[in-house]
Design a protein that fits this description.
Largest sheet: none
Order of helices and strands: HHHHHHHHH
Strand content: under 5%
Oligomer: single chain
Radius of gyration: 31 Å
Structural class: mainly alpha
Low-confidence stretches: none
């Protein structure tokens, strides 16, 4: 009973903070509410005895990604007023899409498929249970090919991002270190011999 109360409390906080992320007028407040979303999600994962994923979520997303988001938002000082001017215009379309998504979720995640009677409460794991080992065994045995495909896709995305940033622009000056190393003295220094001029002294 206590576990259910804690779960529904955390779930309500998660939904409320997620709504606050998309409704906050200040982008800094939106980022802070997203941090609260991550913390409540990690707490729910702790209830599911998935401590490794909960700690990774806090360390990676809260400790690194959200700090970067906050830094960028506070440094750029984005003017969000022009961006929100068109929200009222597209509000009916947004409500229609939201209603369609809600109907699809109810059809897929309805009680006839994911009800509590079909999935009873999980049995507590023994004290020596290691979820990190279990996750690694499942990830690198049953899902090894999807994991490798995802790694290749991320690698291609990284290479594409680097290629886009290194494209040549005609207006931008750049240096070629290989050519700079090969430069000799004769290429940079030219000695010119010029006869000395004699100035006539007026008498």
């Amino acid at each position: 009973m206590l576990e259910q109360i804690v779960f529904f409390t955390l779930a309500a906080a998660l939904v409320a903070s997620a709504l606050a992320v998309i409704s906050a007028r200040n982008p800094v407040y939106a980022a802070l509410f997203l941090v609260l979303c991550f913390f409540t999600s990690a707490a729910i994962w702790l209830l599911l005895e998935v401590e490794f994923l909960a700690i990774v979520l806090i360390l990676v997303y809260v400790g690194a990604v959200m700090v970067l988001f906050l830094f960028v938002v506070m440094m750029l000082d984005v003017n969000v007023a022009p961006l929100k001017e068109g929200f009222a215009r597209y509000l009916p379309v947004g409500l229609l899409v939201a209603a369609a998504m809600l109907a699809e979720m109810l059809l897929v995640l309805g009680a006839q498929r994911f009800g509590l009677e079909r999935f009873p409460a999980p049995v507590p794991n023994p004290p020596d249970y290691n979820n990190t080992r279990e996750l690694g065994e499942v990830l690198y045995t049953q899902y090894v090919y999807p994991f490798e495909i995802a790694a290749v896709i991320l690698l291609v995305a990284i290479v594409a991002a680097i290629a886009l940033t290194l494209r040549r622009r005609p207006q931008v000056k750049h240096q070629t270190p290989a050519k700079q190393v090969q430069v000799k003295r004769e290429d940079r220094l030219k000695i010119v011999s010029m006869p000395a001029e004699k100035r006539e002294v007026e008498s």
